[in-house]
Specification:
The chain has ten helices and seven strands. The protein is α/β, with parallel strands linked by helices and 282 residues long. The protein folds into two domains: 197 residues, TIM Barrel (Alpha-Beta Barrel); 66 residues, DNA polymerase, domain 1 (Orthogonal Bundle), CATH 1.10.150. The protein is globular.
């Protein structure tokens, strides 16, 4: 069954497989086009493009940028960006630097809770400059302090938990502007994560559309049918693009597979053409 997947992570951020292996899984799942949307980094694009050319899969340049909304993280996806844009590269580098400021503070808190790990161990496991809490979770798994990344977040790393440390992040309006300035198409990621009522989410999308938001990730691995319907209605009401993706990570989200999510995800190929048209206008 042919499908697309516009939300995938690799070892260049917090995924556990390199781009070429993610593309191989995509081929098996019947994915005809995909976007690598690593956090705050686009270094995996060349390898993905090469693998895509060999496998006959269209690869779309992508990014996922975290922003701050009501003391929580709100993620903005960007598609068809110019990965060589100097302003974007500088901004992404600053976001990665902010990660390196925050992460050692998390390690200190974990140490105080009796867990023996160092940031050097986390960076060695990560093997990338975009180091985040999922990498810390994986070290906790390796050392036997937790059995899964979910347990690590639920007990220690999530907002409000003992080892949580906030990260310096831009406002979502700013993140949208960064993507626009790099000639990309900004899309609200996994709206099911946004802690808002239905009317609150609609109001947020209206505000973000006024700032340049182009679409909503309606189809997503963990969205329930009612949520998908709600987000589709918001997109239609506000004349926003409809997109979708699995948010594949590998080890830290073992129940999510490339292209199919938890088994029932299917992002239609027909959603790609409107996205391309929006990118052509930039």
């Amino acid at each position: 069954m042919r499908r697309i997947d516009l939300h995938l992570h690799t070892t260049h951020s917090d995924g556990s497989l390199p781009p070429a292996q993610v593309l191989a899984l995509a081929k098996k799942a019947g994915v005809t086009a995909l976007a690598i949307t690593d956090h705050d980094i686009m270094d995996g694009l060349p390898e993905a493009m090469q693998a895509g050319a060999q496998l006959g899969i269209e690869v779309i340049p992508g990014i996922e940028i975290s922003s701050r909304y009501n003391d929580e993280e709100l993620h903005i996806l960007g598609y068809f960006l110019d990965s060589q844009d100097d302003r974007l590269r500088g901004r992404l580098a600053q976001l990665r630097a902010n990660r390196h400021k925050r992460n050692p503070l998390i390690i200190v808190k974990l140490n105080e809770l009796g867990m023996g790990l160092t940031y050097e161990e986390v960076r060695a496991l990560a093997g990338t400059e975009s180091v985040g809490r999922p990498h810390i979770a994986r070290v906790l798994m390796v050392k036997g302090y937790v059995q899964s990344a979910k347990e690590a977040f639920d007990r220690f790393l999530a907002y409000g938990k003992p080892a949580y440390v906030p990260r310096e992040l831009p406002d979502p309006v700013v993140a949208i502007a960064w993507i626009r300035e790099a000639r990309g198409v900004p899309v609200l990621a996994h709206p099911g994560w946004v802690k808002e009522t239905e009317s609150g989410l609609l109001a947020l999308c209206e505000r973000l559309k006024a700032a340049g938001l182009a679409g909503v990730e309606v189809h997503y691995s963990t969205h329930k049918r009612a949520q998908t319907t709600e987000y589709l209605n918001i997109a239609r009401r506000l004349d926003l693009l409809v997109t979708g993706g699995s948010d594949y990570h590998g080890i830290t989200k073992p129940d999510i597979e490339v292209g199919i999510g938890r088994g029932s995800l299917k992002v239609p190929e027909k959603l790609l053409e409107p996205l391309k048209k929006a990118a052509a206008v930039n």
